Amino acid sequence: MAVETSREHLRAACEAAGLSGQAEQAELIRLGENAMWRVPDLGLVARIARDGQHQAAAREVRVASWLAENGIPAVQPFRELPQALDVGGRAVTWWHDLGPHRPGTVVELAGLLRRLHALPVPVDRDLGCVDPFARLDDRIGQTDLDPEQRAWLLGHLAHLRAAWAALPMNTPEVVVHGDAWAGNVAVTPDGTAHLLDFERTSVGPREWDLASTAVACKTSGTVSGADYRSYCRAYGSDVTDWPGYSTLRGARELRLAAFAAQVAVQHPGAHGEAVYRVDCLRGLHGPRPWSWSPVP
Q: What pLDDT shows up at residue 159?
């Protein structure tokens, strides 16, 4: 989505919320599938979701409120404004601006996940079940990878779906964040670590959350071995010891490869990284870790 198109959505959302004129003062925080705009005069952040995500946006608001009710620090929705507004087919939600903050560490993430996973699953929040493969068929189909690469990815996806269905689910399901990496933790100057981004929050095995940092260490190499050991100590277990870890790892790796390939459609400079990730999954670059580079 272009910046000006996103600002047009913001203008319409501001008008609908009774905030006329505020869009011109807004500052762009991030522009991707979802756009984030800060409205500094009001201490607000507007989140503009991708097309067709109204239910997910409304669920994010419910999740954040539930976390606050249970004493887990999280970015909070602005309850005085209408939430999940439909603006040109996109849902807009409004959030309190956390103000100055730094990204969290994996240890801070582990502490928040431990508290999250200890909560009883709410029966009144309609969180749905975790889907490790959500939208992957579409993402793979919309890439500019060559037909052979796309066919291999789709075959790998089918294999992982079957493996997921056969996982040894021998622990109670919990509320999982769904995109549990340190970038979704913000630490304010008072030292409080807050959870962010509840687009994929749902009910499922806690190992799905824990696998994200394990893959960052043991596949992409973006988390050091020492930091990963600290993460495991802070949480209280190491997901790589779980019998189903290889399936979780495969799902996480496939999501990371498909994301890079999708980004490369709009940012051709990422094409080489996307191809490299796919080739790694195909066994063409030796054993893990593979030192994957960030994409825009």
A: 98
